[in-house]
Amino acid sequence: MTAERPQSIAIVGHFVRLEPLTRALLPELRDAIAHPLVFEGGFGGGPGGLRAGLGEFAGWADAYVQWAGLPYAVRLLGGAHDGDLVGMSTLGDLHLANESAHLGWTAYNPRVWGTAVNAETKLLLLGLAFDHGFGRVKIQADVMNVRSCAAVAGVGATYEGIVRRERRRADGSWRDTVVFSILDSEWPRVRAGLRARLDGYGAQPVEYRQRPFETSDAA
User: Fold this and answer.
1) Which of 12, 135, 195, 198 is the Cys-Cys partner for 99 at CB 3.0 to 4.6 Å?
2) Residue 219 above 60 pLDDT?
3) How far apart are CA 119 and CA 190, in angstroms?
4) Which Gene3D superfamilies does the record associate with it (predicted)?
5) Hey, what's the torsion of the CAs at 13, 39, 181, 2, to 10 degrees?
């Protein structure tokens, strides 16, 4: 069986709504993730990749986002922050013949770190991949992004190893990349774990955590 490319349409969960990311949404995305806390762990090329001004951020996003894949904006559902764009994630590197994909290019506003947002986004995008015949989904992170590596392991993905000197960071240093994966045979276990985690958050909409940064006013 060969995998099929999913349609680029909105996906609705309980806590979040995934909306196909377009360039028109970049101002909202910039407000959500253009902060040092997001980039310091290695996202987007690391701290040197941060572009806070809207024009610079749009230029960065044009090169960084895998537009040929299925990039999604993540919006909150319900509550005081209903509709707020709080991050992005992508199902990319779609290789239909090999039935493989890469779930990555993921970042969230720090105000939703530790909430149900990441778990449900992963549940929805992994479900999208496996429901369309993919047999392996890779998830990876910069070795210095301890937070992301722990989150990926917590999802139930299998650690595969470290690809050394895999790419340059924005500051010119070389990145080692930690690689995890989930196979279709493992998906029922991973899905059950994600659903159990989401059950632990209860039914209330996501509320922002204490704000650990100041919003940039750069334009």
Assistant:
1) 135
2) no
3) 11
4) 3.40.630.30
5) 70
Distance CA 87, CA 148 (A): 14
Sign of the four-CA dihedral 178, 157, 13, 70: positive
The first and second tokens of residue 24, run together, are 């028109």
DSSP states of the chain as a string? ----PPP---EE-SSEEEEE--GGGHHHHHHHH-SHHHHTTTGGGSGGG---SHHHHHHHHHHHS-TTSEEEEEEE-SSTTTT-EEEEEEEEEEETTTTEEEEEEEEE-GGGTTSSHHHHHHHHHHHHHHHTT--EEEEEEETT-HHHHHHHHHHTPEEEEEEEEEEE-TTSPEEEEEEEEEETTTHHHHHHHHHHHHHTT-SSPP-PPP--S------
Assess contact for 207 and 80: CB atoms under 8 A: yes
How long is the chain?
A: 219
- pLDDT over threshold 60, residue 32: yes
Predicted TM-score (pTM) of this structure:
0.93
Please state, as a whole number, how many other Cβ atoms lie within 10 Å of the Cβ of residue 95.
Answer: 12
Cα–Cα separations (whole angstroms), residue 57 to 31, 138, 148, 165: 10, 27, 22, 26
Max distance between CA atoms of the chain, in angstroms, equals 50
